[in-house]
């Protein structure tokens, strides 16, 4: 009996000391609490050696694992006796809306001491995080209009919720980082659903009417532009024709001027011919009327039709 006692004690001692050897899997970090005090540096994946069981307490944390919680309205969990169901919140224009979000988070392995904070507060995460997320959701919706949220036009709403939630959880030192926030359910309350549908139908009809009016105005603008181009084109053609006629008349006059010789006995006849021709052009564009007043007659020259 005595012969086996010492080997047995040695085996027990070796077994006890072996409890200080532990394996940390890939994707994990180990937080060691030695005599109740948390060691600053977490243990990395691989084989680690510490003090035996009872002196060291090792908590292995899956830091690469993404975690998810849902906060907000669940139609199947709505309780009729409650005046305001969970997840029914007010928007910035004082309208009620049923909304649910999914929050994705991980253990923060980048910030020094964050993994230890998670180990110490792991039992508080699922208590604090939903409340903080609901508070962030309420603040974000308070700056949005209900129609923008329902139609998915609230730009940056999810990112703002994430920023607010991240700032909130940092105050509690939970040792987690919020990776993303997704809106998974957005609907008006059941008792107001028909009113919202009517509003959406009216909005759709308004958009159709606006598009039709815009199309009609564009057609009218296009027609007016085409007419303006035709008027400009006709005016330019008329101007070119007038210029050509003026040039032709100027050329003819210069040719006639070259023939004029003040010392030539026939020069007077040339001037008379030119005078009569121009007078004929002028008289063809006027109307001569005789007006009588008592015993007096008046001859009046009136403008006639354009040439």
Tell me about this structure.
The chain is an alpha+beta fold. Helix content is 49%, strand content 24%. It has helices at 2-18, 114-141, 146-150, 157-172, 193-259, 267-283, and strands at residues 21-24, 28-34, 37-38, 46-49, 56-62, 67-72, 88-90, 96-107, 176-187, 286-293, 296-303. Helix 2 crosses helix 4 (157-172). It starts with a helix and ends with a strand. The relative contact order is 0.07. The mean pLDDT is 82.
Quick overview:
The strands form 4 sheets. Strands 6, 7, 8 and 9 form a 4-stranded antiparallel β-sheet that branches. A 3-stranded antiparallel β-sheet has the order 3-2-5. Strands 1-4 form a two-stranded antiparallel ribbon. Helices cover 49% and strands 24% of the residues. The mean pLDDT is 82.
Number of helices: 6
How many domains make up the 3D coordinates?
4
**CATH first level of the largest domain: which class?**
Alpha Beta
- Number of separate strands: 11
Strand coverage percent: 15-25%
Strand and helix layout:
Elements: H1 2-18, E1 21-24, E2 28-34, E3 37-38, E4 46-49, E5 56-62, E6 67-72, E7 88-90, E8 96-107, H2 114-141, H3 146-150, H4 157-172, E9 176-187, H5 193-259, H6 267-283, E10 286-293, E11 296-303
Antiparallel strand pairs: 1-4, 2-3, 2-5, 6-8, 7-8, 8-9, 10-11
Helix pairs in contact: 2-4
């Amino acid at each position: 009996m005595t012969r086996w006692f010492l080997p047995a004690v040695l085996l027990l001692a070796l077994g006890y000391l072996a409890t200080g050897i532990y394996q940390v899997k890939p994707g994990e970090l180990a937080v060691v609490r030695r005599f109740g005090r948390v060691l600053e540096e977490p243990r990395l994946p691989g084989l680690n050696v510490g003090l035996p069981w009872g002196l060291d307490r090792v908590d292995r944390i899956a830091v690469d694992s993404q975690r998810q919680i849902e906060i907000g309205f669940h139609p199947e969990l709505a309780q009729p006796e409650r005046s305001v169901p969970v997840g029914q919140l007010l928007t910035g224009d004082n309208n009620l809306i049923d909304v649910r979000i999914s929050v994705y988070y991980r253990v923060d392995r980048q910030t020094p001491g964050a993994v230890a904070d998670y180990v110490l507060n792991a039992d508080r995460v699922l208590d604090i995080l939903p409340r903080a997320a609901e508070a962030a959701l309420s603040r974000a919706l308070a700056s949005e209009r209900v129609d923008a949220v329902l139609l998915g036009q609230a730009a940056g709403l999810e990112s703002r919720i994430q920023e607010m939630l991240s700032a909130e959880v940092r105050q509690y030192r939970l040792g987690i980082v919020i990776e993303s926030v997704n809106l998974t359910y957005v609907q008006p309350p059941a008792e107001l659903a028909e009113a919202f549908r009517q509003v959406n139908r009216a909005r759709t009809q308004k958009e159709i009417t606006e598009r039709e009016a815009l199309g009609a105005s564009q057609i009218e603008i296009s027609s007016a532009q085409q007419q303006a181009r035709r008027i400009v084109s006709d005016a330019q053609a008329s101007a070119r024709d007038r210029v050509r006629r003026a040039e032709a008349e100027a050329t003819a006059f210069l040719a006639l001027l070259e023939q004029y010789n003040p010392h030539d006995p026939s020069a007077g006849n040339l001037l008379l011919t030119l005078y009569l021709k121009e007078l004929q052009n002028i008289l063809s564009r006027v109307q001569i009327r005789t007006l009588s007043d008592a015993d007096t007659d008046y001859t009046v020259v009136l403008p006639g039709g354009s040439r």
